[in-house]
Amino acid sequence: MEHLPAVLLFVLTPVVLLVCARRSCSARRGSLLRRAAWLPLTVLCVHALSFALVHAVPGGPFDDDRPLAAETRAALEARFGLDRPAFEQWLHAVSGMARAEFGPSLAHRDHSVTEVLVAGAPASLLLGALALAWTLALGIPFGLWAALRRGRSADLTISACIALLLALPTFVLTGLLLIPLVFWWKLLPAAGLDQPSAVLLPSLCLGLPFAAQVARLVRSGVAEALQGEWRRTLVAAGLPERAVAFAALRLSLVSVVAFLGNAAAGVLTGSLVVEQIFAIPGLGAHFVESALNRDFTLALGMVVLYTALAYVLNWAADLMLPVVDPRVELS
Amino acid sequence: MHSLRLPLIALATVLALLLWCFSLTGTAPADLVIGNGPDPRSLDPAQAQSVADARVLASLFEGLVIPDPLSGTPAAAMAQHWTESQDGLRWSFTLRPGLKWSDGRAIDAPDIAWSMLRFLKPATGARMADLLDAVIGAEDCRRGRGPASAVAIEAPDASTLIFRLRERHPCFLKLLAQFPLYPVPRHVYEKHGAAWTSAQHFVSNGPFRLVHWRLRDRIRVERNPHWRDAAQLPLGSIDWRCIDSPATLLNLYVAGALDIAMDVPLSAIPALLASPGSAPGSDLRRHPRLGTFFLRMNVAQPGFAHSAVRRALSLVVDRDLLCSQLLRGGEEPAWSFTPTGMHCGALPYSALRASPLSLDEARAELRIGLQAQGMSTLPAFELLHTTDPLDSSVAEWLQHRYTILGVTCKTVALDAQSLRTRMADGDYAMARSSWMADYDDASNYLECFESSSGANRTGWSHAPYDALLREARSLAGADAERAAKLRAAEALLLHEGPIVPLFHYCSRSLVQPYVRGFEPNPLEWLNPAALRVQR
Amino acid sequence: MSALLEVRGLRLEFNTAGRSIEVLRGVDLTLERGGSLALVGESGSGKSVTAQSLLRLLDEPPARITAGSIHIAGRCVSEGPACVANAVRGSVAGMVFQDPQSALHPCTRIGAALAAVVRQHRHCTWREAEQRSLELLMEVGLDAPQRRVEQWPHQLSGGLRQRVAIAMALAGDPQLLIADEPTTALDATVQARVLGLLSRLRAQRGLALLLITHDLGVVAAAADEMAVMYAGRIVEQGPVREVLAQPLHPYSQALRQALPRTDALPRCAPVSLRGLPPLPEHLPTGCAFHPRCSHALPACALEVPALVARNAQHSVACPLEGQGA
After folding, report:
1. Range of the domain at C302
2. Fewer CB under 10 Å: which end of chain A, C or N?
3. Domains (ranges, CATH) in chain B?
4. Is the ipTM of this complex over 0.95?
5. Residue C267 falls inside a structural domain
């Protein structure tokens, strides 16, 4: 009975969805159903793999500079269910996962993993969403500008900035922005999330490298799109430069949207450094810390959450593709 | 335009999400904001771990006595006064009248006795459950071999608590001031079980009570109106900022968002010291800590079995150079295992200092040690350290230093848990270690390397050393004689032992000039009830 | 009143990698309002470059007009930067290109693409522009325009796309339509329908047509006048019937020869066309056609023959003036 939700989620749902997908007459709906069916299966596979990995690494959550008495260790292991056979632990973890319960965190002992995730998610989501907003808001205009001034000084400056942003490690970039904005001009708070403006600088630091990539994509995309013969049609019909540029931009957005799925995953995993430097109460740090602390339950919770998020974000990006490029068929 | 529906829905969702997220920002500042360190492992005193955890707990709880790190003798807290029997085996504490939990419920002696027993029970999984081993029946209880009823902690009436010891302990009072022994509210614990530490149930007995805890952000505490001295408490609220990066602490401090930063990045110290007249350089407070950074050597490894080899490896390291050249944060070169400022009971303890060998002597020692083992050169060995940048640079510095002796060592960076596992398994030759004093007594340091100690991990077993420590224990109460035994033991440890002490830690904090009541001390202890702001 | 399109002595060169290559070497063209002129020649003869230079569509650089003038409806578009042509693009002269596959922006719906052009040329609301787009689509003969405006270019066949391109060219109600090989990429039946559409539009709108093609069959079907181009120059010009019936330039004769025999056109003596057209960077001296010409005189290699009027409409740039045939 304990495993019923897990069976429902990881066995029955995918099977039903796959059967529906096979029977579905519309190719679009079929692909949606198939994709939905693979989500729990993917999560389950990643969970199993991660479970094996975290239990294979040396050391446990109760190791300490101070040796723990065998009895205390046994009591702790019993309390957190680590004394049971690995397979049983895994089964327990899977059935918990189906109910969105990942058990108690081993390093944050006053919190369950679900509490830790729920506590950190808003800040991380806010940071990530704003970072993606920066990515688009900076990457697209500058990429377009560079493409339209190709070979001129504006293009060279932007291209140099792109190369620089892609090469700089996050903490250097952060320092470069932090010192003038926070310490010289005192425009923004140094860290924390006490006021809405506090999220501007971290999200900018997180988004800038991705903005550089988007600018590069747009720059080459627009330049390539302007080679298209449709351009002559528009010019000959009397449309101004501006309209032609936007039409070219429209074409370059296809590669941008395809990149966004990856960028979103990158923003999620890349938030670690930024969250640490700016003391953002998000999830990023748990990803590494839970592994270092051998906080098995939290590590698995993070892996499951991030897998599902990455899956859904890539899915969303794929769904967006036909919107920006009607030639792409959903497959 | 049905094609616009999907993006519009997505946009609306994102906007709603952003609004929700923004609604979570915004907190009015507390009277005092302290940049503390990572989130406490737990607010359950038995589960908490680090010095930073202990500072937060000290604002929420108080024990029978509280530490007074500068004098070395604990001061009265819940207990109004106490008596020790002539033989030191019976301690009787009288509680202050009118003690209350933060929910207004009265605290009586049986509550505290229950809390001590809970701490001992194996099911609690207390990290330092062996603290009370001196009490009759305590060790059996924590090992699950005896009943809790057999533990000699008794409350004959509502205001008296009696401990009976199986042997005299040199610093029993210091033990009772330790944070793991803070009292846990029985009525809440029995109602909510392990969930008693969640913010909505949490009840404590200290000067402050918990308001909320946001992970990776802050723990907000406010004045506990039921505390014994609440009327005299200067601060209405404290924010313990849970920030693990010292660089972020510095940023926040310089930007004026912190009143106290409990850590300062080592790399910033030279710049801060360069401008002692102006903030933030003038706000830097440093104090030697009761903590030692040292290397462990595994005597089972080829070549390390002979003490002369270990001595050569230890004494060729110029600690003065290490501290002045590499660390530059005020760390004190460690020529002994116990840090300076340590006590032995109530007396100051001064360790015997080893002196560096000349290079020729070191080479000679190495040669002697190797010859005794039938070797001509020391086989190349691994020096394990953590991935922490400081650790890595110290390891590389040592690697270079050992080339002077013609010894090849390879530095291997591991994460902390892997390093611990390899040390516990004896799968290492040389490894970075550290020891922080739990309480201010030299025995707390030296007992680590007794043959039977779980903290030893070097395979070093030296009968004369064990005997000296045994004798020292039997001299509890006679601090001067005990100190002599400990000093002799330490001399043995430095000469024969499996360690290379490198430096003693130094606490570094930044404190705004308007903050009063911050006394730098060797335990990095902070008395939250004494802190006040005077602008 | 001047002619709708007047090109005088147009010279144009491409500057690439430090070299300049002259591809138009003095082109003269005149097209009256409502008239139709076909510009004929092999690929590389410069006819397409001529057509694009009329609306300054070539990238400048590398292209550069070095001499001559272009006047469209009295406006000079050859002087100044390329944007001077904005005054005539779409509003006076529309243009249709060869490849309907790539001539439409792939990510714009038919309706939106048309409406954008409509709005560029007249002040109206989007709704009015959409309404006008429907009319335009109907005018170019698309069935169910209501459905078409919601479609993407890739959902249309080549013929339909070319009709949409024509509709876009007409959206600004121009007086001149420049059609650069409008039917080359289409298959034969579609080709005929598109040509029919062009004729109908000419009749209905009083539109002048400049038709660029290499296909004399298309010329015969759609144009009144024709000009034959070779190596960046007009070598023969005249009424279509006259030129096709009695080509005077050896090159025109060769082109004519390549045309399949139809009853509509009289038969003429076969002329063989040897070799390939010259590359613009390696033009022969004198008459550019002389190395391939079976009637070449020694003088042909020395001087460039001028376009000489044979009668009021028909002129030719060959000293033989058809005598060799």
Report:
1. 249-325
2. N
3. 61-185 (3.90.76.10), 194-287+510-533 (3.40.190.10), 289-507 (3.10.105.10)
4. no
5. yes
Q: For residues B3 and C151, is the Cβ–Cβ distance under 8 A?
A: no
Q: Could you read off the pLDDT of B52-66 as tens digits, one per residue? A: 999 999 999 999 999
Chain A: closest CA distance from residue B15 (Å):
10
pLDDT attached to residue A65? 76
In the prediction, which pLDDT does A141 show?
92
- Inside any domain, residue C281: yes
In A191-230, the residues whose Cβ lies within 8 Å of chain C are 228-230
Q: For residue B474, give the H/E element and its range.
A: helix B463-474
Number of domain units in chain C:
1
* Superfamily of chain region A121-283: MetI-like (1.10.3720.10)
Selection from B75, B90, B496 nearest residue B299 by Cα: B496
**C152 chain-A contacts, CB cut-off 8 A:** 326-327
Contact A94, A297 (CB under 8 A): no
- With CB atoms and an 8 Å threshold, state whether B122 touches A319: no
Q: Give the nearest partner residue to B417 out of A67, A76, A294, using CB atoms.
A: A294
> Is C145 among the domain residues?
no
Tell me whether B422 touches chain A (CB under 8 Å): yes
Report chain C residues whose CB lies below 8 A from the CB of A251.
105-107
Residue B517 to residues A89, B75, B206, B527, Cα–Cα distance (Å): 50, 16, 17, 8
Beta-carbon contacts of B88 under 8 Å, excluding residues fewer than 6 positions away, are B165, B168, B169, B172, B476, B477
A190 near C CB under 8 A: no
What 3-state DSSP class applies to B258?
coil
Q: Under 8 Å CB-to-CB from A207, ≥6 apart: which residues?
A: A130, A131, A132, A133, A134, A135, A138, A267
| Main-chain dihedrals φ then ψ at residue C176, nearest 5 degrees | -130, 130
Contact residues, chain A, for C171 at CB < 8 Å:
237
Q: Least CB-CB distance to B215: which of A111, A316, A319?
A: A111
Question: Chain B contact for A83, CB < 8 A?
Answer: no
| CB-CB under 8 Å, B455 with A65 | yes
pLDDT for B35-53, tens place per residue?
999 999 999 999 998 889 9
B 79-138 residues inside an 8 A Cβ radius of A: 122-130
Interface contact flag, A79 B125, Cβ < 8 Å: yes
Residues of chain A with CATH 1.10.3720.10: 121-283
pLDDT digits (tens, 9 = 90+) for A4-56: 888 888 888 899 998 988 888 888 788 888 989 999 999 999 999 999 998 88
φ, ψ at A297 (rounded to 5°): -65, -45
* Distances in whole angstroms, Cα of residue A113 to Cα of each of A83, A299, B534, C10: 19, 9, 41, 78
Taking an 8 Å cut-off on Cβ atoms, the answer to whether A326 and C106 are in contact is yes
Residue C322 lies in a domain: yes
